[in-house]
Amino acid sequence: MQLTLRLTEMATGIRRCMYCGDGLGTDIDHFEPLAEAPLRAFDWPNHLLACSHCNSHQKRELFPRDEDGTSLLVDPCAEDPYEHLELVLSTGVYEALTPRGDATIRVFGLNRADLVRGRAAAFIRTISMLRDRVRLLQTDGEEATEIVTSLRDQPFADVLYAMLRYRSLPGAHLVLRGREVVDALGDPALHFWHHAGGFEPRR
Ligand SMILES: [Zn+2]
To answer: Which residues contact 34 (CB under 8 A, 6 or more apart)?
Structure first.
């Protein structure tokens, strides 16, 4: 229980699965399966919050390694997943940038149909929430703050994370559907991963 609480503090907002970002993080996944690394049973960075689908149906005991024995799975607590994965915002599909990204997509089923649809919908929703926030900042600070909370707690927070990363790339306004959205993403209130001990999106 105590461990679950610590992991909850690390995840931003509502405790969601650290793999799919959709389901609630109800299970504790041993990132490196205990069968392979019994000494890591009490090593807390080896424990990640996962939904029961990702934990029991997708990852199970899978833990692919390269020839040197190094894990092929990207550890979302210890490294930046976006070094290995790219989210295509308009479709909600993850593309692999490296062999480790490819293994991660496969093992966690990151491109299963429900997740892809959910991310594409989250992209549209996030754009309209950002536009609303810009408008509300002029008139109602409280409602503008509620939008930030809602963005943090919504499923598929990885979509906002990807948008924050893309905002400084050339042509970002084309991908992000307008300069107003690009500017809204510059708002420091949205950069909550930094405070949660996660990775600040690269600028
Ligand atoms: Zn999950």
So the answer is: 40, 41
Residue 41: predicted pLDDT:
58
Show the tokens assigned to 90.
């308009």
- Give distance in angstroms: CA of 48 to centre of ligand 1: 11
pTM, 2 dp? 0.81
Residue with tokens 């209130």: 189
Q: How many CB atoms lie within 10 A of CB 123?
A: 23
Measured in angstroms, how far is the CA atom of residue 170 from the centroid of ligand 1? 32
Tell me the CA distances in angstroms from 156 to 52, 64, 150, 159, 172, one per residue in order: 16, 25, 12, 6, 20
Rg (CA), the chain: 17
Query: Of the candidates 46, 14, 40, 12, which has an alpha carbon nearest to the alpha carbon of residue 28?
Result: 46
In tens, the pLDDT along 95-114 reads 999 999 999 999 889 999 99
Å from CA of 174 to ligand 1 middle: 30
* C-alpha–C-alpha distance, residues 57 and 73, integer Å: 16
For ligand 1, the distance from its centroid to the CA atom of residue 21, given in whole angstroms, is 6
Mean pLDDT in runs of 10 for the chain (203 residues)?
Answer: 50 73 84 68 69 82 83 81 91 95 91 95 97 94 92 88 90 95 93 51 41
**Centroid of ligand 1 to alpha carbon of 58 (angstroms):** 9
